[in-house]
Design goal:
Residues 1-23 form the signal peptide. Keywords: Signal. The chain is α+β, with helices and mostly antiparallel strands and 541 residues long. The strands form 7 sheets. Strands 1, 2, 5, 6, 8, 9 and 12 form a 7-stranded antiparallel beta sheet that branches. Strands 13, 14, 15, 17, 27, 30 and 31 form a 7-stranded antiparallel beta sheet that branches. A 5-stranded antiparallel beta sheet has the order 3-4-7-11-10. β3 (66-71) and β4 form a beta hairpin. The longest helix has 26 residues, at 276-301. The radius of gyration is 33 Å and the shape is elongated. The model is unreliable at 1-32 (pLDDT under 50).
Length: 541
């Protein structure tokens, strides 16, 4: 792997002179200008949003995309449109109107802002935020901005939009104010943050200024204005991240996101897609690295809720890039199936009682135990079709154990009971999860539902006699599995307790247990009781 990464780095550096930059040494001007001073920022702008939680809207969006709308107290309407294949997993998105953005250094006080969570969420394909202010902002006087934590930046306008539209590549907040870009020079010099944040903020400010000029009837050559910034972004951000891509999953994800965003922006401005092959090569390197880390967390820390969403995200990225036969996909699939492997133990004790001593001095009781051990293994192919049927069915032997039969009746001699052997089946398991944030951690399995296919054996009483007369054998009793089905109505096991430590990556799943004790009174004189425990052990291979 190290040799491959090294070769990849050499290929990238050899190609970048002709593909991307006049010179490719990070931090070295290489003859190109550095339009953004990346030295210390005096008095960087800090903003604090005052949220209106009563007007917050939350919606879960997945691979198909979707639209969320929130309305501020003044009637301003915020709409976020997430395109298909933009998100890598199901994500709960919350839009909260902001009543005031403290610290905003421009605008006339009529700014409109919305907070978007979860903070740091990244889109593979940019979403679009449209804003319809209650008080209209003239088309040529719109300043678009964003913030992350308390750090302000300029936002990317959708250049051909009729109204206010912002291209959203990541969260957390965006808005619009009234003003002219020519009047915010001082604010542009006070944008803080990383080199990437400062350079891209200035590029977006230039795009907004060009848009305002266009609406005034003035012509600009936006590509020529942005070229020096693209060069600086490449030197200071893109190339260093490519070189660091093999160090960790996080570094690799950052490289893919940076290169993809860089290429996407250039394509929007009319440049050819110069980085497609580079993104493909990065993906082939980074995806296995990330999945190795996920698999190690699964095996060593029992973090089971992350690996399938991670695989699903990378699989979709491979598909979107037209990479269908990569060996990396096969390896990652095996890792998922080896991770999501469990052993199920089902132990059951039952007791039937018929007490008619108050009627005819008779009494009968029968107690029995049984067990089922089954393998629970995920099939990735089935999971893609239906997660509720993602685990492959399996079977195991069951038999009568610890039988205790008592019977008393006047003038009668009790008989004996038969034993039985049969097969029990694991049919399905559904893991209900709090979705993970694959970058920040968190989440975990919150509930489980297991379905068993249990047999219904009967137990025969033989050899009983009353008043010297032998009774014919009679299948009067039911085995333990049948008693469970009678008391519970089906073969499902619910109400699980999940055992595992809370880690930075989320809630671990070492074991899960479900315990029950059910007394079913069939009549005034008869009852069936079952007491049991099911244990699900995470046993990665």
């Amino acid at each position: 792997m190290h040799n491959r990464l090294f070769a990849t780095g050499l290929a990238i550096l050899a190609a970048c002179a002709s593909l991307l930059l006049p010179a490719c040494t990070p931090g070295d001007g290489g003859g190109a200008s550095a339009p953004v001073d990346l030295g210390p920022v005096d008095n960087p702008i800090r903003v604090v949003p005052a949220l209106d939680p009563a007007r917050a809207v939350t919606q879960t969006i997945g691979f198909a995309g979707g639209t969320i709308t929130a309305t501020g107290a003044d009637g301003t309407v915020f709409t976020l449109a997430v395109p298909a294949d933009s998100l890598r997993q199901l994500t709960r998105i919350t839009m909260t109107p902001v009543t005031r953005l403290e610290g905003l250094p421009f605008g006339n006080g009529s700014d409109v802002t919305v907070d978007l969570q979860p903070s740091g969420l990244v889109f593979d394909v940019p979403a679009t935020l449209t804003i319809a202010p209650a008080t209209a902002i003239p088309p040529g006087e719109r300043i678009l901005y964003g913030y992350s934590d308390d750090q302000l930046s300029f936002a990317e306008p959708v250049m051909d939009a009729d109204g206010i539209a912002i291209a959203v590549s990541h969260f957390s907040g965006y808005g619009a104010a009234r003003g002219l870009m020519g009047d915010v020079e001082a604010a542009r010099k006070r944008i803080g943050g990383s080199a990437e944040e400062r350079i891209t903020s200035e590029m977006r400010a230039i795009m907004q200024a060009a848009r305002q000029a266009e609406l005034r009837g003035e012509s600009t050559n936006l590509a020529s204005l942005l070229d020096p910034y693209f060069d600086q972004l490449q030197r200071e951000v893109v190339i260093p991240r490519i070189e660091a891509a093999g160090q960790s999953c996080a570094a690799g994800r950052a490289a893919i996101q940076t290169v993809g965003s860089y290429a996407h922006q250039r394509v929007l401005l009319g440049y050819e897609d110069e980085a497609g092959d580079l993104v493909d090569e990065l993906l082939e390197t980074v995806a296995p690295k990330c999945m190795d880390e996920e698999y190690e967390m699964c095996v060593n820390e029992h973090i089971v809720h992350r690996i399938f969403p991670a695989y699903q995200a990378f699989s979709r990225q491979f598909s979107q890039r037209g990479i269908d036969n990569s060996p990396a996909l096969g390896k990652m699939k095996v890792q998922v199936e080896k991770c999501l492997h469990f052993d199920l133990e089902f132990t059951l004790d039952t007791r039937f009682e018929l007490d008619t001593r108050s009627i005819n001095q008779s009494y009968l009781s029968y107690a029995e135990s049984t067990e089922l051990d089954a393998e629970v293994a995920l099939s990735v192919d089935d999971a893609y079709v239906d997660m509720s049927n993602a685990f492959e069915p399996s079977s195991g032997p069951m038999e009568s154990l610890k039988q205790v039969y008592r019977q008393k009746a006047p003038g009668c001699v009790p008989g004996t009971v038969s034993t039985w052997r049969d097969t029990g089946h694991f049919l399905a398991m559904q893991l209900i999860t709090d979705p993970p944030d694959l970058l920040e951690g968190g989440g975990g399995v919150t509930d489980i539902e297991v379905e068993l296919g249990l047999p219904s054996p009967t137990v025969t009483i033989s050899g009983m006699s009353c008043a010297g007369v032998a009774s014919a054998p009679a299948a009067d009793l039911t085995g333990a599995p049948a008693a469970y089905l009678l008391n519970h109505g089906d073969g499902f096991i619910r109400d699980w307790q999940i055992h595992g430590a809370t880690t930075a990556a989320g809630q671990a799943f070492v074991t899960a247990t479900s315990e029950w004790s059910v007394m079913n009174r069939l009549s005034a004189n008869a009852s069936v009781e079952d007491v049991g425990i099911a244990t699900l052990r995470h046993t990665p291979r």
